Amino acid sequence: MSKVIADISMSLDGYVTARGVDLEHGLGIGGEAIHAWVLEEPRSPVDEAVLADSFERTGAVVMGRRLYDIVDGPHGWSDDVGYGHDQNQSAAPPCYVVTHEPPATVRLASRFRFVTDGVAAAIDQARAAAGDKDVVVMGGANVIDQCLAAGLVDELRIHLSPLVVGGGTRLFALAGPTTLIQRQVTESPRATHLTYEVVREGGPR
């Protein structure tokens, strides 16, 4: 059955970016280290398997406008880099961007759809596109928090990097009390991959 999965990399002290996020520094200044399990080469076999499996299972992606502005910016995604980083971009899923207003121009227009009536509508449209594959909410933190707070997430995946960045963008600022059931822990030298089932009111889905 298709799931809605919030999936994000995080430092040990709870930040998904370092300080100083802008179009030049999409992950903050020094924030690339939070994503070392993806970005550093050679990638470990464990990390390669986690990345490839998630890419294969994803039928659609939901993201916020700030993240979109970075990935569609001059230092963002390209013909060879996108969702799943260096996975086969010809097979990449469509991305649904939660925004108040669509941008005037879109550099990678074939990859993005724009949703102006909130996260629930974006999830609904992404589900329709994904079919029996998963919908992945990839960030940023605010959109993941909104989805958790609204009870839209079935599964939370945290790629916990073994570093302390000391500041930046925190996860869970809006989510409120949330009960999770730990389902899987996979370790590599650069990350601990944690999978949790999100318990909704009335029990697990």
**Fraction of residues in H or I helices:** 10-25%
Low-pLDDT stretches are none
Please work out how many helical segments DSSP would assign. 5
The global form is globular
Let me know the number of strands: 10
Order of helices and strands: EEHHEHEEHEHEEEE
Distance between the termini: 11 Å
Work out the radius of gyration: 16 Å
CATH superfamily of the domain at 4-24 and 32-128 and 139-150 and 163-175: Dihydrofolate Reductase, subunit A
Give the percentage of residues in beta strands: 25-35%
Provide the CATH topology of the domain at 4-24 and 32-128 and 139-150 and 163-175: Dihydrofolate Reductase, subunit A
Biggest beta sheet attributes? 8 strands, mixed
Strand order in the largest sheet: 5-4-3-6-1-7-10-9
Going by helix content, strand content and strand pairing, the class is alpha/beta
CATH class category label of the domain at 4-24 and 32-128 and 139-150 and 163-175: Alpha Beta
Mean pLDDT metric? 94
CATH architectural label of the domain at 4-24 and 32-128 and 139-150 and 163-175: 3-Layer(aba) Sandwich
Protein name: Dihydrofolate reductase
GO molecular function: 5-amino-6-(5-phosphoribosylamino)uracil reductase activity
InterPro entries: DHFR-like_dom_sf, RibDG_C, Riboflavin_Biosynth_HTPR
Pfam family, one: RibD_C
